[in-house]
Write a structure and sequence with these properties.
GO terms for molecular function: DNA binding; DNA-binding transcription factor activity. The chain has 365 residues and is α/β, with parallel strands linked by helices. The protein contains 18 helices and ten strands.
Length: 365
C-alpha cells in the first residue's frame, strides 16, 4: 500500500522539467512543532528519547496541559495552513512566527477548524489504521481534541493568543537553546545545499535514491511513498513538491497536500547516524595536509576546472597537478564530470560536511 504521486506530461518530458517541480524548504517553525511531537510521544522516537526525558523533567506541569491541548497541530504532520500554505518563506524563526501571527489574525477561523478536522479524519480513517498501529504507531493513543475545536469555534482569537504564548514559552524554556547547542540551522542548511546540488547535477529521480529513505522510490514515472493505505495524488502543471528536511521527524515520513502541491517532510538525520569512521577521516585529512592540494580545493570551489587549467593557474606541470588530484579523488574530496572532450574537477560535499564554511576559512593566495 502506498501514496502514488502522478506527474503531468509536461513535468515528465525531461530531467529539467521534472526538477522544476522540486523545491527545498528551510523551516525552524516546522522543527519546533516536530520537537513538540516528540515530547508528546517520546516512546516512538528512540533517537531523541534521552533529550525528551531530560526536557520533561525540567518543564512545569502546566506546559504539558498545553502540549496536550494543542496536540492536533503536531500530533501527525503539521498542517500546511499553519505556514500559510507556504506562500512566503522566511529566513528565521522570528519571521515565521510573525507570519503565523499575521495569518491567524487575517484568516477565517473556519479555515483552521476545517484543516484540523481533516487531520482528525485522516488520523482515524486512514493515517493510523490497524496495520499502522502494529508498525510505526504501535501503542499510540490519539489525544482528545474536543476542547481545542470548541474553543476555536467560540473564541478563536483567545486560542491564537494562547498558542503564540505557548510557543514563546517553549522557545524560552527549551527550543532556542537547543537550536543553538545542536547547530540545527547549519544542519538543515547543509542538508538543503547538499541535496540541491545533487538535484541540479543528477535530477529528481536519482535524488530520490540519494535521500536514502526506504519508503520513497520511483516507479513507472510515479513517485511512490509507502504508507499503510492507498491514495493517488495528481499534480498539475502549477503544483510543486516541497521537500522539508527535519532533524526530529524519524521514524516518520509525512506527506501533506497544500494549495500548491504537496509537502514531503523527511528525516535528514539518517545520513548522520553512520558518520565517517576514524580511518577514513585520517585519509581525508591526510589528503588535505598539503598546501598545493588546499589551493586546488579552494580554486575548484570557485569554479570547476581541468587538469591543464589548474596547472596554468598553479604554475605546475600537468603531471604534478594530476598526482594531487588523484590523491584528492581517492579521498572522495573531488569528483569528475565530463563535458564534451574535457574532464572537469569540482569538490564533493565532504569537506563542507566536516568543516562548515571551510572554503571561507582559506585565503585566496
Amino acid at each position: 500500500m502506498a501514496i502514488k504521486i502522478k506527474f503531468n506530461d509536461y513535468a515528465l518530458q525531461t530531467n529539467e522539467t521534472l526538477t522544476q517541480k522540486i523545491q527545498f524548504v528551510y523551516s525552524p517553525l516546522n522543527e519546533l512543532f516536530r520537537s513538540l511531537h516528540i515530547l508528546l510521544n517520546p516512546r516512538h522516537h528512540g533517537m531523541h528519547i534521552s533529550w525528551a526525558l531530560d526536557v520533561q523533567q525540567r518543564l512545569p506541569h502546566h506546559f504539558f496541559d498545553d502540549l496536550q491541548y494543542f496536540s492536533l497541530f503536531y500530533e501527525l504532520g503539521v498542517p500546511p495552513i499553519l505556514f500559510n500554505n507556504f506562500e512566503r518563506f522566511s529566513s528565521n524563526l522570528d519571521e515565521e512566527i510573525e507570519q503565523l501571527k499575521s495569518y491567524l489574525l487575517e484568516t477565517n477561523a473556519q479555515n483552521i477548524l476545517f484543516s484540523l478536522k481533516k487531520v482528525i479524519t485522516n488520523r482515524d480513517n486512514q493515517f493510523i489504521p490497524t496495520l499502522a498501529k502494529n508498525l510505526e504507531w504501535q501503542g499510540f493513543s490519539p489525544s482528545s481534541s474536543n476542547d481545542l475545536l470548541t474553543d476555536l469555534n467560540n473564541n478563536p482569537q483567545r486560542v491564537y493568543t494562547h498558542l503564540l504564548n505557548f510557543i514563546n514559552d517553549y522557545r524560552e524554556l527549551v527550543f532556542d537553546s537547543m537550536w543553538q547547542s545542536k547547530h540545527l540551522e547549519q544542519f538543515l542548511l547543509t542538508e538543503i545545499k547538499q541535496q540541491s546540488l545533487y538535484l541540479a547535477q543528477y535530477g529528481f529521480v536519482k535524488l530520490i535514491n540519494h535521500l536514502e529513505i526506504d519508503r520513497i522510490y520511483w516507479q513507472q514515472e510515479n513517485l511512490i511513498i509507502i504508507k499503510p493505505f492507498e491514495e493517488t495524488i495528481n499534480l498539475s502543471n502549477q503544483d510543486t513538491i516541497l521537500l522539508i528536511p527535519s532533524y526530529f521527524i524519524w521514524p516518520h515520513l509525512f506527506v501533506d497536500e497544500f494549495q500548491h502541491g504537496i509537502t514531503l517532510n523527511y528525516d535528514a538525520l539518517n545520513r548522520q547516524r553512520d558518520k565517517i569512521d576514524a580511518q577514513y577521516l585520517t585519509h581525508v585529512f591526510n589528503a588535505l595536509s598539503d598546501i598545493v592540494r588546499l589551493k586546488i580545493m579552494k580554486y575548484l570551489s570557485d569554479q570547476p576546472s581541468t587538469t591543464q587549467a589548474l596547472g596554468q593557474v598553479l604554475m605546475m606541470s600537468e603531471s604534478t597537478v594530476s598526482h594531487h588530484l588523484k590523491l584528492l579523488k581517492a579521498a572522495g574530496l573531488v569528483i569528475t564530470q565530463k563535458k564534451g572532450k574535457f574532464v572537469l574537477y569540482h569538490p564533493s560535499t565532504i569537506v563542507n560536511d566536516l568543516i562548515p564554511d571551510f572554503y571561507q576559512l582559506l585565503k585566496n593566495n
